[in-house]
From TrEMBL, chains A, B:
CDD domains: Precorrin_3B_C17_MT (cd11646). The lineage of its organism: Bacteria, Bacillati, Bacillota, Clostridia, Lachnospirales. This is Cobalt-factor III C(17)-methyltransferase. It is an enzyme of class 2 (transferase). One of its GO terms (biological process) is methylation. The gene is cobJ. It comes from Roseburia intestinalis L1-82.
Length: 243, 243
């Protein structure tokens, strides 16, 4: 029988935003591995579990740790924020897992920031949408630009992950400038900082205003499609052309 | 104080796939309103609640029922499958809610089929992706075609909702033909039927093979991007150009 490893999406932060399947999967494990920030979000119920971490940018080592622990006979979960398969560790686990044919992976989905952030703002993704990360750590910036243009061409509502960081302070501005090539300046937008945490904060603005906003790396940004409206302080994308 | 109404995403089906927040929100309500099929998925814990429904295509009436019940002083939740804000009822509730200024809406997010289906297949949405519905009930087919072309242009991984119905038996074929204008025939794809239910079934195939598959209306289809691979029977999209 293969060693089973679970890759668990824990949602945006607070424990209540986990699915019951995710919670129960973690409870049934011996060892929970994850980035330190996410381990700290786990509550009392998990205090007795073996909790292991590797620093940021040591994702590969974190994955290997999962396989090694599983081979020791531990029941292992790797936790990711949001959904494990949306900019999460799931794909890296499958890639590295090719070297561990005695291990079997299972992904437990979670509420990714596009969904939890959208719920805070109203319903900006209620029709066809794109999810785009502005991080060029693993993707060439030219490809990110191409995707932004394609998203605008297709009149998709857009959720933007990783809109900013210390090294990429002007990336959201650059992304907005690309969208503004074809999208009107008054297009309704919004953003949410620290979704699912105490210090959560949200804002609505136009695309032109968004261009000049400073957002931090814990922010998810939403850009409406041509049918998105502000209704009573909420960002709402219609389901279609009649209701 | 306003009458509070919750619009709750219940995930793909089985109760364990709900977030604890969604579960607790429903438990705290007097009245749960939803499409009959979704009400039936609720377990014993909700048997004592007032459960109300309207038939398919009477979504507007279902929303109005929520507001009327809330005005009667009931604590009301409207349930949607997946996420309430992804092709769900959230935006319609905000639109109709303009006529009920004494009511306040709150969206409780859930695991939409793009995420739960992706977890079944592996990690097909582990980088930038689009979600597109093939239903032309509320969207002109020309717009759907435009979005499919834009998604292919942008090299997005794609999750397709509503790929088929009795009246639209050839829509998935038509969508694949549009993608095949620019995407290679061997592009790895997959699909999942009845996610989160006992009779769930999944398949991997190429884009050319997908074109000729018959899928039912309870299926979510995934089309890889140019970096998607099959790894040990799973559909995996790399996080970027180096790992």
């Amino acid at each position: 029988m293969k060693h089973k490893i679970y890759i668990v999406g824990m949602g945006p932060g607070e424990e209540a935003m986990m699915t019951m399947q995710a919670y129960d999967t973690l409870l049934a494990c011996d060892t929970i591995i994850g980035y330190q920030v996410y381990l700290k979000l786990l509550g009392e119920a998990f205090a007795e579990k073996e909790q292991l971490s590797t620093p940021m940018k040591q994702e590969r080592e974190r994955c290997i740790l999962c396989f090694e622990k599983a081979r020791e006979g531990k029941k292992v979960s790797l936790i990711c924020s949001g959904d494990a398969g949306v900019y999460g560790m799931a794909s890296l686990m499958y890639e590295i897992g090719e070297s561990y044919p005695d291990c079997e992976l299972s992904v437990v989905p979670g509420v990714t920031a596009a969904l939890s952030g959208a719920a805070c703002l109203g319903a900006p993704l209620n029709h066809d949408f794109c999810v785009i990360s502005l991080s060029d750590l693993l993707t060439p910036w030219e490809k990110i630009e191409k995707r932004l243009r394609a998203a605008a061409d297709g009149d998709f509502a857009i959720a933007i992950y990783n809109p900013s960081s210390r090294k990429r302070a002007d990336y959201l501005m650059r992304a907005c400038d690309i969208l503004l090539e074809t999208v009107e300046e008054t297009r309704p937008c919004g953003y949410v900082e620290n979704i699912g945490r105490d210090e959560s904060k949200m804002e609505l603005c136009t695309l032109k205003e968004l261009r000049d906003r400073q957002v931090n790396m814990f922010t998810t940004v939403f850009i409406g499609n041509s049918e998105t409206k502000i209704i009573d302080g909420h960002l709402v994308t219609k389901r279609g052309y009649h209701i």
